[in-house]
Amino acid sequence: MKKILMGMASIGLLTLSACGGAEEAKESNKQKEEAKVKTEETVPSESTKKESTQQSQTFKVDWKDNSQVTVESANIDIATNLKDGTQLLYEVRNSSNDNDRLDGNFEVQGGVAKTTLDLSNFQSGEITIRIRFYPFQQSEELRKVYGDAGENLTGQKVVMKSVGNIVGEEYKVNK
Fold it and tell me: For residue 91, how many other CB atoms are within 10 A of its CB?
């Protein structure tokens, strides 16, 4: 009797483990199918691939500074291949007087960025003029070319800063 009960118990256990194995196999197949669907959903389309490639193309910045700075004025004149409409920012500070300051922007048109800054009313001291091109401050269309943080930019004048890649000039004059 013991042998019969042991035999039946063994058969019962084998049957239960076989059923469990079938459930695990079904679950494993279900997971594989879900993974396949997720993979298919995340595979980029041809148009997405094309957009991504266009956005990651490098843009080599040409930047030739022809500016002239005196104690009376700063004639900023930069020849560049940056796209028309690209905004450049200027910041002028006097180290001896916080009231002497100018801030603003000007834009690239036809391969040139020009502006004249009047320094005649500035008091004596060291005057610093900074010209900056920040890709993140450009239009959406231009950010597609340059990259949101300038990641597409290359060239001799491109400098890595905490805000991304920028291009700039700095002039100092003592008045």
Answer: 15
